[in-house]
Amino acid sequence: MTDYKNEAVDAGEYASEPAFMKTKGRIFDIQRYSVHDGTGIRTIVFLKGCIFRCRWCCNPESQEYEIQEMKNADGTIKTIGEDVTVEEVMRVVEKDWIYYRRSGGGLTLSGGESLCQPEFARDLLHAAKDRGYSTAMESMAGLPWDRIQMVLPYLDEYLMDIKHMNAEKHKAFIGKDNHLVLENARRVAEAGKCRLIIRTPVIPTFNDTEEEIDAIALFASSLPGVRELHLLPYHKLGYDKYVGLGRPYLMGSLETPPREKFVTFKKIAESHGLVCVIGG
């Protein structure tokens, strides 16, 4: 595990920082130089814990809040999870301030589900905003509204997953129905405090039909201010993690839907007045 506590930063020491810089949380990774999860060049902080159990989750090590051990392909053991403060995370984030300034990038929170650690998420976003960096969060919004209210004042882009419009199918593949997700999507859009982008992982046997994508696009286009739908092709890049955690991979041998399907899906989204992006 990276020792974030000892990372130095040219911006100086943090002795006079506000109290929220001491807020503690649990992460399992920090990824620098991302160009897919928000505007510009970004640093992604992955938070531990999730209320959902998507069958295809590419970060299964994120689902449990507890610190875990995962076996690597070479047989070595990797510790998954580390308790850190906002200050310690920002020491890493600030290393790339020049890239944020040039590209309009900044900090993105991911997981897991960022809202499972609402105080930590809020204070990370607050710290980034104080330094003039753009902020984004990947989230399914399936938790109580008061948690979302905590982060909205510090959030520029909300990358919200809408995975299915049918509550029963949503529950069968994800573990919970979608009622709160859809309700919160509308509340975020109506609040108008951040740019809301709807993202849909396109998963074989789950939501890869024209009818299902049409239903999601129709809902997205009904949300005030929403102009984009991102379709994320299914992949199996997380398969080895399931092996390392001793867990079954429930999607079996399913493959990425063919390119022709995404051409059709893109036209469907555009028919609802949305800009459709294939990929994040």
Walk me through this protein's architecture:
The chain has 280 residues and is an alpha/beta fold. The chain has one domain: Aldolase class I (TIM Barrel, Alpha-Beta Barrel), CATH 3.20.20.70. Helices cover 32% and strands 22% of the residues. It has nine helices and eleven strands. The strands form two sheets. The chain has a nine-stranded mixed β-sheet with strand order 5-1-2-6-7-8-9-10-11. Strands 3-4 form a two-stranded antiparallel sheet. A hairpin with a 7-residue loop joins β1 and β2. α1 (86-93) crosses α3, α3 (118-130) runs parallel beside α4 and α7 (210-222) runs parallel beside α9 (259-271). It starts with 23 loop residues before the first strand and ends with a strand. The model is unreliable at 8-15 (pLDDT under 50).
Major β-sheet profile: 9 strands, mixed
Architecture, according to CATH? Alpha-Beta Barrel
Structural class: alpha/beta
Quaternary status: single chain
The helix/strand series, from N terminus to C terminus, equals EEEEEHHEHEHEHHEHEHHE
Which CATH C-level class is it? Answer: Alpha Beta
Q: Total domains, how many?
A: 1
Low-confidence stretches: 8-15
Number of helices: 9
**Which fold name is given in CATH as the topology?**
TIM Barrel
Q: In the CATH hierarchy, what is the superfamily? A: Aldolase class I
The average pLDDT is 94
Q: How helix-rich are the residues, as a percent range?
A: 25-40%
Strand order of the largest sheet: 5-1-2-6-7-8-9-10-11
How many E strands?
11
Amount of beta strand = 15-25%
Shape: globular
Over the alpha carbons, how many angstroms does the gyration radius reach? 19 Å
Distance, first to last CA: 26 Å
